[in-house]
Design a protein that fits this description.
heterodimer; A: 677 residues; mainly alpha; two-stranded antiparallel ribbon; 24 helices; 8 strands; B: 120 residues
Chain lengths: 677, 120
């Protein structure tokens, strides 16, 4: 479909496919092995919690892999590429994420879960306060948030898989065949056949191994996926630095050179143009995404096609072709000077027809101070900006196509400190993992391991994809694919194309490890928290087992069905559900674990208040910004901050206003066992 | 809320003086407070530092680098990252207390309804 894809076709797609198959084989073996392990153990505790026996590697890597969802390997690199070094601050709080997310609650939640024999998060809240309704409220919120999240994750997994196999012959044939079958089926109307195949492959694989293997299968695949991710990054880092330093002058380090080049960079412009062919075409002339075009002159202008188009038979031009203009002279020289660059010499850019728009922040100095780009005043007769701004990619708040205040204004930088470290601690999926470690030695070593693990992933990613700005200019329009593009580019250059398969598997692994654990959380909520604890407490072990398999299967199939026609705003759904869960669960859990005076009324109030306050910010977005997914930002802060503060305040106040908890409960959960009467 | 035993008389209220808290709880709470403070210190170092030296730079061509990283990011993020890792290492191996975490022998996972009857 474009330059990247033909590159994929050339070398790596088959390798990627083979890597994927080997990888899936390993996953299934792990599931079978886990299933064997379950025999002779308490089914529920083993299936949903691995019998609380996780050791260091399993615990650390399952924790790291679950929280590093697909975003870390698609969204994050794309953001680094688009906004530059500022992403270092965006991700900054990851320096304390391991110690916060595992240390804040870890030891106590594990202890309390053991004391109450809980295996799910609602279990803990219910037993800790001896309140059935609290348990049910928690279940409802978990199922609500996680279902949405699961659908979004299924979609993102399928899209990543599609990138991986797009150029594989078998896949293309299958797409064509499936396209024929689904025609006329109402439910599948307008669904891309390729996407559907990927969804089915991805979905069925995840559902089967999760359903069959349970918690241990999820944990072990997480471990494998975690290793794939870190190995991928550690291979890419030296390669990226090495390739960048090739262009550097004598005595300048690769990264130094990259940063110096980035200082000179100016954000690209987007727009449309009319293209003329050299004469009337006799057969359809395709204009493909990724094609390079130039406008020769003293200082040539360089464009890249961003949308497919064509010049039809009998015509000699195509109008309104979407293009991106590279604005940085250094980038233009690099592209034109590169041996592999093919310029479409058969197409001419019509200067008169150019209609380009610069970034709102970073594309232009706002010389009139009116917050607007003033086309007439600030452009010269060629339509080029007079004063494009340099240095945007190496300073804050970072260039941004749409946001007036740049990519990361101060308030958002603060918000992300809450988002990653604090909200990360409040995820029920993390809490479940904290209930599963074997002993405190495991906890201590795991916090250390995760800290090292994150250090090896996140800051190196910033460096790698800053280098990508120099190595692969003009990818702004398809920045979501910068990760596979960079993987292929780097490995091609050292003649190891097959390695790309492993690198491209990393983001896929990341999504898979998130999906499987969420799947298990929803089904555990249904089987344990609703059926066993409320409908039929005396249920037989055999029935529980059957039900667990059935529910895991059904939830998975449901989410997959939802993802056939998935909602848009993929990333927004993930952000909404993640921060919403934290707003609802963190405060009640903190008070339940650390404050003997806390009671059910207080914690329920806190949970509902946090949920409502957070939701209210999103609802207000409909009226103030015109979309649910552009939430109202109170004092410019993200809704997560409003949600967390409301939740903590509400829990505290409501607790003090209501009666203290019964003494025996306090004794059970806060005092030494031997003092129990 | 309805299950909450609000009918208990005040003399049954928990009075910390009478209760001997479990050391696991005390240690865990102390560790949690320290972790929260660590987060706060991280926030107060990283965001203001980066904002002061890395935002709205008048002349970006004058930006200095350390090991090729813009210096505001090096001192604002990379160095704190190393410090945080050292702190985490000390915290995990030199400060955090071990505790014996034992399963409650009285409560079987298979009997979830236990303890619920008293309120019904």
């Amino acid at each position: 479909m474009n330059g990247l894809h033909s590159l994929l076709a050339a070398s790596a797609s088959n390798a990627a496919l083979w890597t994927f198959l080997v990888y899936m084989l390993a996953v299934f073996s792990l599931a079978i092995f886990s299933n064997k392990l379950m025999r002779g153990k308490n089914f529920l505790s083993e299936y949903f919690l691995g019998s609380r026996g996780l050791g260091v590697w399993a615990f650390a890597l399952t924790f790291a892999a679950t929280s590093a969802s697909g975003g870390s390997f698609t969204g994050f690199p794309s953001k680094i590429y688009t906004h530059g070094w500022i992403l270092g601050l965006w991700i900054g709080s990851y320096i304390v994420v391991p110690i916060c997310a595992m240390g804040l609650l870890g030891k106590r939640i594990n202890q309390v879960a053991r004391l109450s024999s809980s295996i799910t998060v609602p279990d803990i809240l219910r037993d800790r306060f001896r309140s059935t309704s609290f348990g049910l409220i928690a279940v409802a919120l978990i199922v609500f948030f996680m279902s949405f999240n699961l659908v979004a994750q299924f979609k993102s997994g399928s899209l990543i898989l599609k990138t991986l196999v797009l150029e594989v012959g078998v896949f293309q044939d299958a797409s064509t065949a499936v396209n024929g079958w689904i025609e006329g089926i109402g439910f599948l109307e307008g669904v891309d056949a390729g996407y559907l195949i990927c969804l089915l492959t991805f979905g069925i694989a995840v559902i089967i191994y999760t359903t069959y293997g349970g918690f241990h299968a999820v944990v072990w695949t997480d471990v494998m996926q975690g290793i794939v991710m870190v190995v991928g990054v550690l291979i890419m880092l030296p390669l990226a630095l090495m390739l960048v330093s090739k262009g550097a002058p004598e005595g300048t380090g690769g990264l130094e050179y990259a940063t110096r080049q980035m200082i000179e960079m100016v954000p690209p412009e987007e727009g449309t143009v009319t293209l003329h062919s050299t004469g009337v075409v006799t057969e359809n002339l395709a204009i493909r995404q990724g094609d390079w075009l130039t406008l020769p002159g003293e200082s040539p202008r360089l464009f890249r096609v961003t949308g497919e188009s064509n010049i039809p038979v009998g015509s000699s031009s195509a109008s309104d072709v979407s293009v991106l203009e590279i604005m940085t002279p250094g980038d233009i020289n690099r592209v034109l000077g590169h041996e592999d660059t093919v310029i479409r010499s058969d197409l001419q850019v019509d200067l008169e027809s150019l209609e380009m728009t610069a970034y709102v922040f970073g594309g232009e100095e706002d010389r009139n101070g009116n917050g607007q780009l003033d086309e007439g005043e600030d452009r010269n007769e060629n339509g080029k900006l007079d004063h494009p701004q340099k240095g945007m990619y190496v300073t804050g708040p970072g260039p941004d196509k749409r946001e007036m205040n740049g990519f990361l204004p101060l308030s958002l930088a603060v918000s992300f400190f809450f988002m990653w470290a604090i909200s990360g601690s409040g995820q029920p999926s993390s809490m479940v993992r904290l209930m599963a470690f074997k002993d405190t030695i495991t906890l201590r070593r795991s916090i250390f391991t995760v800290a090292m693990y994150y250090s090896m992933i996140y800051f190196p990613l910033v460096i790698i994809f800053c280098c990508a700005r120099i190595l692969l200019p003009g990818m702004e329009n398809e920045s979501d694919r910068i990760m596979p593009a960079m993987a292929i580019f780097l490995t091609e250059n050292i003649g190891l194309g097959w390695l790309a398969g492993l690198l491209v598997a990393a983001p896929f692994a990341a999504v898979m490890s998130t999906v499987d654990s969420f799947l298990l959380m929803i089904s555990s909520a249904l089987v344990r928290d609703i059926y066993q604890r409320n409908i039929n407490p005396d249920v037989q072990e055999k029935t529980v087992k059957t039900l667990s398999y059935i529910f895991t299967l059904l939830v998975g199939l449901g989410a997959m069905a939802g993802a056939v026609n998935p909602p848009q705003f993929l990333q927004d759904i993930i952000v909404y559900t993640g921060s919403g869960l934290a707003a609802a669960f963190l405060a009640p859990m903190v008070f339940a674990l650390y404050w003997p005076r806390s009671n059910a009324s207080g914690c329920i109030s806190g949970m509902l208040a946090g949920f409502a306050a957070h939701l209210a910010m999103y609802f207000s977005g409909i009226f103030t910004n015109g979309s649910f997914f552009q939430p109202y930002r109170l004092l410019d802060f993200d809704p997560i901050i409003v949600g967390l503060f409301t939740s903590f305040a509400a829990t505290f106040v409501a607790t003090l206003l209501t009666a203290p908890p019964p003494r025996d409960l306090v004794q059970k959960y806060f005092c030494k066992p031997r003092t129990e009467s | 809320m309805s299950e909450q035993s609000t009918d208990r008389s005040p003399d049954q209220m928990p009075e910390p003086v009478e209760l001997e808290y479990d050391p696991v709880f005390i240690h865990a709470r102390r560790e949690a407070i320290i972790i929260f403070c660590t987060w706060l210190v991280g926030l107060l170092w990283m965001v203001p530092y980066c904002y002061r030296y890395g935002y709205n730079v008048a002349d970006p061509s004058q930006i200095t680098t350390v090991f090729g990283i813009p210096s505001w990011l090096f001192w604002g993020i990379a160095i704190p990252w190393i410090v945080a890792n050292l702190f985490t290492t000390w915290f995990c191996f030199g400060f955090m207390k071990d505790a014996e975490l034992v399963d409650n022998p009285n409560e079987e996972i298979k009997s979830p309804a236990e303890g619920m009857e008293s309120n019904q």
